[in-house]
Amino acid sequence: MSSWLITGCSTGLGRAFALAALERGHRVAVTARDVDRVRDLVEAHPETALALQLDVTDDAQVTAAVAAAEERFGGIDVLVNNAGYGHRAAVEEGEDEAVRRLWETHLFGAVRTIQAVLPGMRARRVGTIVNISSVAARSSPAGSGYYAAVKAAIEALTLSLRQEVEPLGLTAFAVAPGGFRTDFAGRSLTQAGTPIDDYADTAGRRRKEHSTVHGTQPGDPAKAAAAVIDAVESGRPPYLLVLGNDASDRIRASLAAIQDDLDTWETVSRSTDFDS
């Protein structure tokens, strides 16, 4: 039995992670901005679940939630940074406040929780940090530039973090889901308030009013949760755990395109050093 703290547990993948971990007998601090939305998980698992209010953009709430989880469980063994939401806009359509809020939640929110749990993990030489990324970090579709960018930042941060903590007996990995049947493309999706007509056939196709994917995504959240827990329990998780056939296909296509560019431009790439 290990102790988990999972952010963003009110709906979607976060809730699936919490349910799966509890059903496997782990102790779980289930968190949400509205703590009432996760109290049912505690009622179903009163001995092993702890409901905590947590807005990851609030320093004080992060500190308090980590302290409460450590006090109740004696430490945090696994942190899952799941809190977040989707955002769609052409790059030119991006609104400063909305973009800053996106980064504050996804990236800086994750940094807050990581920095809060690491002292305890380092002291005990036990810990796994799971950062939820997205297939968008590698495929970067039109209309998802800001979301793709923040998820790419999460992946880069995770790779550096993994190298920093592995000598201490800890590890970190990122998870890149494709389309899963959650509220991501529905209630949780935000977008630019003022569309630009010139992007109607690119970024515009991904606006909520044009979307047909909500409720039909191929991914099963319960299976995603089981895969993440299996990776944690393996003791040797991959740096990037890709979830979903769609995600696997899109990431392989992205890697192939990068490889093609590397091959095509290799002579130029290798021509820029000082002559020996």
Task: Give the topology, please.
Blueprint: E1 3-6, H1 12-23, E2 27-32, H2 39-44, E3 49-53, H3 59-73, E4 78-81, E5 87-88, H4 96-124, E6 128-132, H5 136-139, H6 145-165, E7 171-177, E8 190-191, H7 221-234, E9 240-243, H8 245-264, H9 266-269
Parallel strand pairs: 1-2, 1-4, 2-3, 4-6, 5-8, 6-7, 7-9
Helix pairs in contact: 1-7, 3-4, 4-6
Rough outline = globular
SS-derived structural category: alpha/beta
Q: What is the CATH third-level topology name?
A: Rossmann fold
User: Can you tell me the residue ranges where pLDDT is under 50 for at least 5 consecutive residues?
Assistant: none
**How many angstroms separate the termini?**
59 Å
| Helix and strand run | EHEHEHEEHEHHEEHEHH
Q: What is the strand arrangement across the widest sheet?
A: 3-2-1-4-6-7-9
